[in-house]
Amino acid sequence: METLYFKVADLCFAIQANDKQLIKKLLPSYAPFYLPQGPDGKVVLVATIREGAVNAEAEGEEIGQFDCGGTNHAIYQLQDGYKVVISTVEGRLACAMKTNADFSHCDIALLGEECDHSFGLGNAMMIAFAFSASYYDTILMHASVTMNKGYGYLFLGKSGTGKSTHSTLWRKFIPGSDLLNDDNPAVRIPADGQALVYGTPWSGKTPCYRNLKMPVGAFLRLEQSPNNEISREAPLRAFASILSSCSTMIWDKPSYNHITHTVEMVVQRVPAFYLKCRPDEEAAQLSYRTISHK
User: 69, 37 in Cβ contact below 8 A?
Assistant: First the structure.
């Protein structure tokens, strides 16, 4: 088997497969994160892709569904880990994965049609990384991140509330703004204690795979409204806003406890705001004046 190494959020992970070039072809968004010289730190996740390694049959106890951008994947609890069966938006089987208890090792089988393998493998790796990384003060979030003057600003909210739209408004009306990631950035508290936001290989429907990191400037929770109003959230409300935007499996207590601890540290370091807004220039200017590090 051949091994490819990648680094996301300053965490190294490996993908093992018989055909290295096939993996590169299936995961083009991972190219900016590829480590051609091998790992330069601890490898937190090893994923092995083998034909027939995992089937799509129900196994163990089905405990929930993992939401990946509107596509729900079945999660089964095994004696010493989990099984995840991944399907496309259209309901076609694409991949099955078994993990150990802390998601540091997983076996993956690509299923169904070749045209769905990229989707299946990408989603499997995103899930495996989200929960293996949780043990290293890292959270994978549903957010759109705009960069401005050396800081990353994370726009939060339920699907359809305008996260991507608000990022676009910043880029249109706020000089020096650019997109870091539009759907699945990583936030980490490294040893020096500063909250950082990272680009990742996963960015939803907007291709934006930038291997960059920067301090988190603020979190901004959005809600559509006929008026533009902004306020700072109290710590408890900020905790709830940020946690609800994290990739979590509440039934997996070890990873969930790590994620909640990381969110607590983030809230202590970074302000969070609540914006009721229209999708217009005034909303972008209001949020920029209020939350930005000028």
Answer: no
- Residue-wise pLDDT for 54-104, tens only, equals 999 989 998 877 666 556 688 999 999 999 999 988 889 999 999 999 999
Segment 189-206, tens digit of pLDDT: 999 999 999 999 999 888
Structure tokens at 1: 């088997």
Helices 281-291 & 163-173 angle (0-180, nearest 10)? 80
DSSP letters spanning 56-81: SS--SEEEEEEEETTEEEEEEEETTE
Three-state DSSP class for 84? strand
Q: Give the span between the Cα atoms of 79 and 258, in whole angstroms.
A: 21
Closest by CA to 156, choosing from 115, 201, 216, is: 216
Residues in the chain, overall count: 294
Quick check: helix, strand or coil at residue 281? helix
Closest of 201, 77, 223 to residue 140, by C-alpha: 201
Q: How do beta strands 272-277 and 213-224 pair? A: parallel
Cα–Cα distance, 271 to 215 (Å, whole number): 12
Q: Which residues contact 158 (CB under 8 A, 6 or more apart)?
A: none
Residue with tokens 């705009």: 146
> Mapping DSSP to helix (H, G, I), strand (E, B) and coil, where does residue 290 land?
helix
